[in-house]
Amino acid sequence: MRRTTLPATPEPDMRSPAARAATDVAMLSAAVFVAAIIGIHSRPPGLLASVWVANAVALSVFVRWPRTFTAPAAVAALLTLVTADLVSGTDVYATIAFNVANIVGILGGTLVIRRRHPEPMTFAGSADFARMCIGIVVAALLSTTVATLSSSRLGPHAPAVEALSWFGSELTSYLLIVPVLLSFRASTPRRRSRPASLRGLITGETAPIALTVLLMLAGLIVQGPLLLALPLPALLWCATRIPIFGTALLTALWSAWTLLFLGRGELQTGGLLGADGQDGASAVLSVALVALGPLLVAAVSLDRMAVQNKLREALEYDSLTGVLSRAAFLRRSQQRLDTLITDSRPVALLMLDLDHFKSINDTLGHAVGDIALVRSAACIRGALPDDAIAGRMGGEEFAILLPHADQEDAASIADSIRRDHERLHVLSSRTATVSIGLAWSSYAPQSVSPLLVSADHALYDAKRRGRNTVVAVSLD
Predict the structure, then answer these.
(1) In 318-356, which residue ranges form alpha helices assigned H by DSSP?
(2) Which one of 41, 120, 185, 347 has the lowest number of neighbouring Cβ atoms within 10 Å?
(3) CA dihedral for 220, 222, 226, 229, sign (positive or negative)
(4) Separation between Cα atoms, residue 29 and residue 58, nearest integer Å
(5) Domain of life, per the record (predicted)?
(6) Crossing angle for the helix pair 244-263 and 206-218, to the nearest 10 degrees
(7) What angle do CA 287, 138, 273 make, to 5 degrees?
(8) How many angstroms separate the CA atoms of 452 and 160, rounded?
(9) Among candidate residues 280, 272, 299, 244, the one with its CA nearest the CA of residue 128
């Protein structure tokens, strides 16, 4: 029944640093090449791509996996972009000029995001969102500047570059991809689970996702500027209800869908676009702004959840020992008993009290007493099965609920905790032993109170018998 927690030990990477670097470069090149081909195929004849995600893919890799941000990787990314354009039949001079603009933007944005933050970055709050936005704006500005200057020297054989159009397309493409890649499997604050009910279904994750999809489909029918703003309320709802990766993914899907149809001239937008149906700068920037809103709300929601989780943890857990507080222990124990009643399963409860704790405080000081409490809580947690519930009832007194434990198992756990405390040295000359009262029942009572009262009486009996002992009683 003893629980042992072993640290996860990843298998060592036996490859040499050069082999790992070569693998990173190869994987980066493959991802950028696929993204570039997708962007090229979204390109209207003779024009720039409607959705160019290759730059965003490269930037995301560089900031989330900093070990890939090396000179060989940057060169490989540039060569991959050039290769993708050349195999697709793009003019050589335009290919080189525009992809130099792309790599300048990628590198500039990466440096801005990683400035003073060399650690891997994920999208886990408003601070990360601010860094990400500043970085992608810088990336878009640098790319736009280089592309515009290069375009003026390429002559009529290359697509014309309008600064606002290039900037809007770059910004939107970054907002499509970077939040998705940075939030995928990121460690973010968790939302509290909601009970299964009609209200939970309506206010949970299903309804906002369904509404977003419905409004995206409605965009096939709606004409005019309303097309760009139609899904915004649903996306904002998603930002407050679903994980940030889901919000980023839905926002990216809608933005890509809109840009694709706008670029092909297959949607009428009431004059937002030119007569030839090609996407204009104002439409592209509108998509970027729509994408920005849900992401900002999702980032702020993460901050709010982090604060709520910290407050909840402060209320439910004892700040010194890390076990549950008295109120949280009583509440969770009662909830656990409610599930055991229907199954007619046995249950045990231990009450523990450190022996001569007042003497430790009086002779060695309260700081040493705190050390004794922390080490005692560690001993207790180390001896418990996974389904046990442990809490600090006050002072030097702890309680443990053992669901499904028969009398023999409960006595074995209690004696194990007692023996562990015999070996527990607070200082070199002092130990902190423990007295334990054990109350056991072959069936779960309606309330946790009978178990607490019986275990408490057994605890005081253990102290009267000389301490450092376990006294067990049965409620049957």
Answers:
(1) 326-341
(2) 185
(3) negative
(4) 9
(5) Bacteria
(6) 0
(7) 25
(8) 80
(9) 299
Closest by CA position to 413, among listed 383, 377, 440? 383
- 265: alpha, beta or left? (left if phi > 0; alpha if psi -120 to 50): left
Cα–Cα distance measured from residue 473 to residue 475, given in angstroms and rounded to the nearest whole number? 7
Task: Please identify which residue in the block is written with the tokens 């057994």.
Answer: 458
| Strand partners of residue 352 | 398, 436
> Over 208-274, what HEC string results?
HHHHHHHHHHHCCCCCCCHHHHCCHHHHHHHHHHCCHHHHHHHHHHHHHHHHHHHHCCCCCCCCCCC
Decide: pTM greater than 0.85.
no
Tokens 């994408």 map to which residue? 291
List, in order of start, the domains of the chain with CATH numbers: 17-186+195-313 (no CATH), 326-474 (3.30.70.270)
Q: Please write the tens of the pLDDT for every residue from 211-249.
A: 888 888 777 676 556 666 778 888 999 998 888 999 999
How open is the CA angle 183-185-188, to the nearest 5 degrees? Answer: 70
Cβ(402)–Cβ(385) under 8 Å? yes
| H or E element in which residue 409 lies | helix 407-422
Catalytic residue positions, numbered: 396
User: Which residues, at least 6 apart from 107, have a Cβ–Cβ distance to it below 8 Å?
Assistant: 74
Q: State how far the Cα of 474 lies from the Cα of 348, in Å rounded to an integer.
A: 9
Contact predicate 373/396, CB 8 Å: yes
Tokens of 255: 């933005």
Residue-wise pLDDT for 65-115, tens only, equals: 999 999 999 999 999 999 998 887 777 888 888 899 999 999 999 999 998
- Measured between alpha carbons, how far is 106 from 189 in angstroms, rounded to an integer? 29
Query: Which CA distances in Å does 387 have to 333, 381, 391, 444?
Result: 11, 11, 13, 15
Pair of tokens at residue 270: 């009431």
Alpha carbon distance 432, 356 (integer Å) = 8
Q: Helices marked H in 115-185 — which ranges?
A: 126-154, 163-183
To which H or E segment does residue 353 belong? strand 347-354
